[in-house]
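SAMPLE LOG
Freezer: B-3
Tube label: C17
Construct: single chain, 239 aa
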Amino acid sequence: MTDSQSPGAATPSNVKPDTTGFLPGDDTWTQFRNIYSILTGKMSNEGIEKFRVARDTRNQEADCKRCEDQRDYLLQYSPTIRFLSESIQQLGGDLHNHNIYCRRCTDRKGGGFDPEYGILICANEMKDQGHLEDTIAHEMVHAYDHLRFKVNWSDNLRHAACTEIRASSLSGECRWAREFFRRGQWKLTQQHQECVRRRAILSVRARPTCKDEAHATRVVNEVWDSCFRDTRPFDEIYR
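STRUCTURE (predicted):
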């Protein structure tokens, strides 16, 4: 008899959840028990995060493969992604599948843009192809702004606020249907503007040089009018 089969060894039926309510294990029954605990409110926020990390680790290969397949499809067939890619090329940049990376992320974000390396897509955070399209478009607006307006990413919060306003407004992530069905924002008027403002403030607040939420709000408000009206390289807000 091996150690794993010795009397008293833990099995999926008798393993107990830890103090957070999370139950380790990759089998279907364990996953069902964890999901049940989440739905009934028996798992703490720490336990939910443990569940998500375990799920993301388990599904890493499949998530990245799906992300890469959808990325390649969007680069070929999405009008928005193709237009942004061509606009970036006209400014001397190059963003395609060789520098748009699908990876598992450990922090809860959709992706990011780095002027030196390209775009990171957090494959484990992508809900579907539409979500991926919005995320790539968002980061491509940042890339366009970097080339067109020489954004100072490290020190100038007004620059950061402006590109965040433009990226949230032009990418499609703040369109009415996504706010209504995905995020529970049910207002029928000024919804797009409020979404853009909210997301820009959150992004600016996360930067090291930002003091607090009041500081982030003030910076966003200072650049709001000019940056929200600026739809380049588009003629208008399409998504």
